[in-house]
């Protein structure tokens, strides 16, 4: 029986725009995987990357609950959220947030070519870094698992608007109202203790510094 994924509260905020979904997933680096483990709910943060019409989740052989969910084909949910702005209104009740959120439902699949999948994840998290470091060892590859979750069953909700107001709303319009956009950027790189003094900062790291990690969405 097909599940009804329609949003009922503030249903006008639900969007079926695939481009909006892809933009959200391409901008964010971490999502939260929800599953059932030994009869109890569990939610864990996981790095991910969108590749086509699926997301790849970065895990390890020690993360048994995700692997068990994949092996047993247990349904899971994966949530990704971006807070884009605080909405400042003329009453506390009317304050809000501008946001984009997506919930992906499905069954996890193990990836056959994990080495290539890891390369894709690396390129999402730190573009260009693979060319600057050594290859993964067999032991490292054996300890890592990449799981795939198709974007076949997704619910996305978003708000991208200002404070609710009208000329005849009875509020004191001399009280400030508006939005405060949120933007996050990378800080200055800090070398490790064992990195020799004067070692140049690699191109991949310098590129992060010059880019906005999470640009504001007005």
From TrEMBL:
Signal peptide per UniProt: none
Pfam families: Pyridox_ox_2
Domain of life: Bacteria
Cross-referenced InterPro entries: Pyridox_Oxase-rel, Split_barrel_FMN-bd
Protein's name in the database: Pyridoxamine 5'-phosphate oxidase family protein
The species this protein was found in: Agromyces protaetiae
Lineage: Bacteria, Bacillati, Actinomycetota, Actinomycetes, Micrococcales
